[in-house]
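Deliverable D5.2: sample structural annotation.
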Amino acid sequence: MEARLTEFSYGYCVTEELANGSGPGFKAAPYFPSLYAEGKEGGGFDVQIGSALFLQFKLSEELTRRSATETKKGLLEPIFFRFWLHRRDRSSQHKMLVELESKGNQVYYIAPEFADLKSLDDAYNSPGGVLARSAMFSPTEIGLLADDRYHSLAFRPGGTFGWFLSAPKRVNVARASELFQRASRERTVAHPEPTNATSAQRWFGLLAVQIRQIIEHNRGEIASRINRLDRGPLEEAAYLARTHFGCELFLFAESSTARE
């Protein structure tokens, strides 16, 4: 049986490239408990607070025929790629992602500009190759879903925009370099002083509160009751992001080479 590209394998490669540092003096590592020591001076990951990054990994399907809807509408010529959003009547995820982005967080759907395992291998074996061949779309720019039909994003490799359907809407493509540029700007403007344990703990707590409030607003659930163990706010935020938003939470940090 032919090996298939999976969200896990694609997400792993994106995560590894972000964590290895793909920006000017920055890296963006996913939250794992072993990387952080919340509220402890000199412990764990050297987080630069100010902007959290939430990524929802998508797999792309490759469109090669002119019978594709996007081609019939005169939007895209093959070869191009497409991924699907959750239907509004089956999931509140897209609306929740829009709200999460409105709180000042970076939130994106991220999808590969390829659809097979060999292409993933080729990209992975090139420095920064997976991120370079990934397209990101802002949920806010897509906008709230107007109906309960299936909706998709279609895009060409290396393009600067894609198309949201069913009613065609042009949506900008974001690239990895933009993530780090924005994080650097926000750190400089909003948090010019070095992060200490107290300020980090406060920011982690606010992030967890934001996420709980969005869940409660959309699903009527008391999200705080989910955290029955004595977890820190950052661990709770990461857990809720994964289980309710389908996202991985990344935190920006200054790379060790930038500090030397």
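Annotation notes: Residues 7-259 form one domain. The CA atoms of residues 24 and 180 lie 7 Å apart.
The annotation will be released with the project's public dataset once the embargo ends.
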